[in-house]
């Protein structure tokens, strides 16, 4: 496992990180989830990402229990705040940030998180209020650093201009061979500002594994057939996308790796990406994905892959 610096922080994070969206505490049976966490440590993965809203606290609760016996300095822990935890608890107001960080720390059974992230931008709360509240969280020792997910370039710039506030060190956008939107504005801006990318859905919800075949039934044990984990990936399951992904398989074979590893290595070719978040329901999946770290793949193969998928678009 290779490691990269997370923005202007002193955190070194594994190139492959373990996420918990739709999986731990929700869609994956507890023993399997625990086995995945243990395998992550065996593989050198030191970065674990979650959010308060995942399972309405269930993912954080599971991780708090799964990590309880490990030295706190042996892993980098990130969580998020913004989405509704109840009919009234939502957003990035000062009151909500103060309330939700304490609730997250309780569930995670820790005194601090290494990274506290705004899960989205809150247009209903003044940015100055949000940044002041996040700065308080850092200065109180409840988080070491702060980040954001899916903010626009103007929003990122506005936060950076505020004086006397803690600065963001991370951005968490969706980014993959099939979704390259951050390349236009967010990545260049962040690269110039000491902010690294921690990308989610680098395998497009598993579609870039190549296991979903156009015109064929979905594999019985796959995320696509799961009622708890498959609802967010339906837009990727178009015949056009699935056919294009199958055309990538010979390129991965030429590179001497699986298609999942090829797709993750493509994401990691970008210097501003510190880590690619993967989900796993079985330890073997994590083992395969972790092997993408440090892979040296001919850039010409990546260019061919980009050309193949350049014209495809997800359903919405």
Protein model, in words:
It contains 10 helices and 10 strands. With 316 residues, the protein is of the alpha/beta class. The strands form 2 sheets. Strands 3-4-5-6-7-8-9-10 form an 8-stranded parallel β-barrel, surrounded by 4 helices. α2 (58-66) packs across α3. The protein is globular.
Share in helix:
25-40%
Mean pLDDT reading? 93
Low-confidence stretches: none
Largest sheet: 8 strands, parallel, barrel
C-alpha geometry: globular
CATH superfamily: NADP-dependent oxidoreductase domain
> Hey, roughly how much beta strand do the residues contain?
5-15%
CATH class value: Alpha Beta
Give the ordered list of helices and strands.
EEEHEHEHEHEHEHEHHEHH
Q: Report strand order across the widest sheet.
A: 3-4-5-6-7-8-9-10
- Structural class, by secondary structure, is alpha/beta
**What gap, in angstroms, lies between the N and C termini?**
35 Å
Name the CATH architecture. Alpha-Beta Barrel
Question: Could you please say which CATH topology applies here?
Answer: TIM Barrel
């Amino acid at each position: 496992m290779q490691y990269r610096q997370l923005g202007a922080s002193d955190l070194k994070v594994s190139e492959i990180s373990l996420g918990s969206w739709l999986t731990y505490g929700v869609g994956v049976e507890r023993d399997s989830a625990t086995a995945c966490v243990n395998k992550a440590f065996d593989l050198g993965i030191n970065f674990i990402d979650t959010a308060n809203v995942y399972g309405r606290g269930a993912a954080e609760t599971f991780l708090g229990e799964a990590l309880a016996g490990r030295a706190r300095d042996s892993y980098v822990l990130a969580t998020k705040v913004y989405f509704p935890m109840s009919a009234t608890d939502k957003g990035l107001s000062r009151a909500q940030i103060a309330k939700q960080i304490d609730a997250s720390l309780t569930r995670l059974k820790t005194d601090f998180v290494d990274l506290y992230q705004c899960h989205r931008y809150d247009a209903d709360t003044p940015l100055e209020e949000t940044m002041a509240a996040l700065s308080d969280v850092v200065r109180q020792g409840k988080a070491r650093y702060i980040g954001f997910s899916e903010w626009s370039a103007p929003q990122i710039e506005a936060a950076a201009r505020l004086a006397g506030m803690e600065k963001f060190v991370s951005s968490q956008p969706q980014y993959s061979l099939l979704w390259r939107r951050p390349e236009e504005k967010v990545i260049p801006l962040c690269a110039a500002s000491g902010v690294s990318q921690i990308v989610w859905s680098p395998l497009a919800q598993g579609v870039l594994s190549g296991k979903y075949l156009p015109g064929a039934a979905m594999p019985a044990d796959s995320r696509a057939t799961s009622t708890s984990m498959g609802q967010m990936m339906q837009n990727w399951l178009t015949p056009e996308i699935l056919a294009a992904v199958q055309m990538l398989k010979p390129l991965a074979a030429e590179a001497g790796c699986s298609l999942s590893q090829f797709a993750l290595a493509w994401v990691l070719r970008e210097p501003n990406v510190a880590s690619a978040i993967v989900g796993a329901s079985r330890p073997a999946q994590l083992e395969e994905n972790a092997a993408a770290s440090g892979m040296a793949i001919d850039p010409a193969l990546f260019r061919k892959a980009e050309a193949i998928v350049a014209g495809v678009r997800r359903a919405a």
